[in-house]
Amino acid sequence: MLSLRALGYGSGIVTMARLLRVLQDLSLLVARVGLGAILLMHGWRRWQQQGLQQQVDYLSQFGTPYPTAAAWGGVLLELAGGAFLIVGALTPLVAAAILAEQVLIVCYTNWYKGPYLLDAQGEYLGGYEHNVALGLLALLFVTFGAGRIAVDQLFRRPPVEADQRVDDRAYA
Prior knowledge:
Elements lengths: L11 H39 L1 H9 L6 H21 L3 H20 L18 H16 L28
């Protein structure tokens, strides 16, 4: 019978740790591509289908400061940030910006509507549950990064060996 150890995968604990790491990377990839696609769709709709002026008018009715800048910033973040998330570039930075965007959307436009998007009859209420879900997903990328299946990995420095590390206390 062929075993994982016979294939050179080492002990069961190491193999399980590797498997969990691969599953984490695949999960981060799927979630990152999904969030990026959602952001791209929202940004494209606001820019090309609704028009930016409609977004400015929407933000103005809530007294959002600098509604034109906020509308442009939101659309650009959703378009560029969505593309960056899909390929896994600058993931923690983009995710932090998306988290901030979602917090601001809830604070300025829909906190008073309550948490639910739909009422019991299916009528749109415009609550903040969608924004909270997107913000929490972005928080995961701020915390864990893009995973190993990302463009970010091309620019990582190799780990420093123990004998090459600099003792910070020597310069104090």
